[in-house]
Specification:
The protein is an alpha+beta fold and 162 residues long. 22% of the residues lie in helices and 25% in strands.
């Protein structure tokens, strides 16, 4: 039972004391529990983005919800669009300059962000496939979005042998 001086961690709902506590948006977490709800990456106050579904890292937040929830980033994006600024990387939402730009799925990416959304493998223009605004290697794309079923075509081959 928590006393008046103790509080519960939002991540694990266990008692958290001030020595092991991180506060974010007036919520308390153990340091080990302050992670992205999607990828489990450790967060800090600068990289965390809040949503009713939980706390996310910048990459997962952008992938799921389309843009940063940081008002200053939204203003900067409007400014760059109005005054001819650079494109924004869909993975990290940071500016993409010509020297680091890779095109894929109709979008501009940083070379370091141009990776498969599932396995993290670095991609090239010949190995990239896209679906719903995200990029994948050909193997992951085929495994997760390709044709499903067992033995497609095998029954016809067996009938021809008989």
């Amino acid at each position: 039972m928590a006393t008046s001086g103790e509080s519960k961690c939002l991540g694990c709902e266990q008692t958290v004391n001030s020595a092991e506590e991180i506060q974010f948006n007036r919520r308390r977490f153990h340091k080990r529990c302050f992670v992205c709800v999607d990828c489990q990456k450790s967060l800090d106050g600068k990289t965390a983005k809040t949503h009713p579904s939980g706390v996310h890292c910048q990459s997962c937040y952008t992938r799921k919800f389309g843009e940063s929830n940081d008002p200053s980033a939204k203003g900067a994006n409007k400014f760059s669009q109005k005054f001819g600024g650079s494109d924004r990387c869909p993975r990290c939402s940071k500016a993409v300059y010509a020297a680091e730009k890779v095109m894929g799925g109709g979008k501009s990416w940083h070379k370091t962000c141009f990776r498969c959304a599932m396995c993290g493998k670095s991609l090239e223009s010949t190995t990239v496939t896209d679906k719903d605004g995200e990029i994948y290697c050909k193997v992951c794309y085929a495994k997760h979005f390709g044709p499903k079923g067992f033995g497609l075509g095998n029954a016809a081959m067996l009938e021809q042998r008989e």
